[in-house]
Design brief:
This protein has no helices and no strands. The chain is low in regular secondary structure.
Length: 27
């Protein structure tokens, strides 16, 4: 399981649709 740290508190239902420009896969 890849662990990705992003500066985002509320993560939406879609991991690929975050408020930041960071690609989060398999959160």
């Amino acid at each position: 399981m890849p662990k990705i740290e992003a500066e985002v508190a509320p993560i939406p239902a879609h991991p690929t649709t975050t408020t930041t420009t960071i690609h989060i896969h398999t959160y």
